[in-house]
Write a structure and sequence with these properties.
The chain is of the alpha/beta class and about 100 residues long. Helix content is about 35%, strand content about 15%.
Length: about 100
């Protein structure tokens, strides 16, 4: 019987599926990876894995990564995301989209 895919790999797979303009929370990623209580772990994976679209992941209130707000804002705005005062206000897709 095959062993289940490790959590880090599942988290990376979910992040890689995010599309331009799609903004989700750490908790959303954790839930989609099958570990809804692992939102802090998602942050660690993002910090330790290069090549991931880290800017598409924010906290549940839409707050940007502390200390990196300028770059975070630039990358999000380039994808059509509205950012105001260090927080995602609206995104074309994902948790912060207007439905």
């Amino acid at each position: 019987m095959a062993s289940p895919q490790p959590l880090d790999d599942r988290i990376i797979d979910v992040i890689r599926l995010l599309e331009p303009g799609e903004v989700v929370s750490y908790g959303d990623i954790a839930g989609d990876a099958g570990a809804p209580r692992a939102s802090r772990h998602v942050g660690r994976v993002l910090a330790q894995t290069s090549g991931l679209c880290w800017w598409r992941v924010v906290n549940s209130q839409g707050c940007l990564v502390p200390g990196n707000e300028r770059e975070h804002t630039r990358l999000l705005r380039a994808e059509g995301v509205r950012v105001l005062n260090g927080r995602v206000v609206r995104s074309p897709k994902g948790r912060f989209s207007i439905r």
